Amino acid sequence: MSITPNSVEARDIAYHMHPAVNLRKFEEKGGLVIESGDGVYVYDNTGKRYIEGLAGLWSVAVGFGEKRLVEAAAAQLQKLPYYHSFNYKTNGPSVDLAELLISIAPVPMSKVHFTSSGSEANDLVAKMVWYRSNALGKPEKKKIIGRIKGYHGVTIAAGSITGIPANHTSFDLPLDRMVHTSCPSFPHFGEDGESEEAFTARMLKDLEDLIVKEGPETIAAFWGEPVMGAGGVLTPPKGYWEGVQVILKKYDILLVADEVICGFGRTGKMFACETYDIKPDVLVISKQLSSSYMPLSAIMMNDNFYQPIADESDKIGVFAHGFTASGHPVATAVGLENVKIIIERDLVGNAARLEKTFLDGLAKLAEHPLVDSSRGIGLIGALELTPWEQEGAGAAALAVAEAIQEEGCIIRNIGEAICFCPPLIITAEQIEEMFAIVLRALNKVAETR
């Protein structure tokens, strides 16, 4: 890409520090400037069109350019552009959205607390877990179990629960009260000759062994995504979540389900907790909550989790936590309208109905010589590429992802996988269009091998 002096690309390189890049490489090559969007498509500043095969960052459920969300934001900006939720104050959209979320929760929930990102929400839940243990007179019960390849954000506590080395290296993470158990991805970590059932049993044994080693009295909570997203779209093996919940109940350990990616229809149910029969104490949601039109996340908690925290705040005199933008009226107004659209247009049903088309398309692409296998559920999936051993880890996925972008589709490469998570409004025809682009890109890369 040639970069014209004083162009937006040149000014981006000069002034804008990007997340999730090699900063030196970015200084050399710059990035793609997306200028507009419509439905499942986005357009760069040259007018080139792309299918957004990752829904932005796993998040734009209702597609780009949804007028109802624009109108909801504009109306709220005119009425009350900002107010806080400190000191016994609130605003209408936050109350309305909290009520709606409680009504659609996959298990009975008691309260909703709003924040602005999944990282922020998971970080706060960790603080609340510790606060609750103190309230219960169990100051030693503070450790949190995450999973290798699990992703829960990049703030200090959430980044420590995350189990991805790149999010720890040189950041002095993880914190020492965070421990990690095995990654339950059968395609990646199953042993030769091991059945899926035997693999699940081994994963559960690893978890229980860790709990016993650390001391059950020291462990407060277990964090898990129903489907591991940023780890590479890793679906759980049969019996895994059922077994995890038995173990956590045995040792009185809280279950925090991170549905930042999975929530609001991605797996073909409103929540992936329904897909896998997970009954969490706390549910963390973001991304598709507002289709990322506004920064918004929420923590839903059951009464067992909430009541000790409320008691402790009464004892101390205050729950001394809060963010300026918690329950921001414009964000919650947009979130409220977004969830209404998901329900009214049956976008959850659309994901369920298109699951076969989507997964069959991935399976067909898995027949390509560059591809090892496919996986997924609902409208989230991945192709695992055959590694290019001599060129380093992830080289094949990076080359294919770049070729896919050149051909007119945006996806994400993670390790040896290329991952897909299109807007929930996508049609069967658009899925076929997306996979036709991917096939052209695979063929293009294959020609150079």
UniProtKB/TrEMBL annotation:
Record flagged with keyword Transferase: yes
GO biological process: biotin biosynthetic process; gamma-aminobutyric acid metabolic process
Entry cofactors: pyridoxal 5'-phosphate
Molecular function as annotated in GO: adenosylmethionine-8-amino-7-oxononanoate transaminase activity; pyridoxal phosphate binding
Protein name in UniProt: 4-aminobutyrate---pyruvate transaminase
NCBIfam families: PRK06105.1
Keywords for the protein's UniProt record, in alphabetical order: Aminotransferase, Pyridoxal phosphate, Pyruvate, Transferase
Organism (species): Cohaesibacter marisflavi
SUPFAM superfamilies with a match to the protein in the record: PLP-dependent transferases
Entry's family note: Belongs to the class-III pyridoxal-phosphate-dependent aminotransferase family.
Any Pfam family matching the protein: Aminotran_3
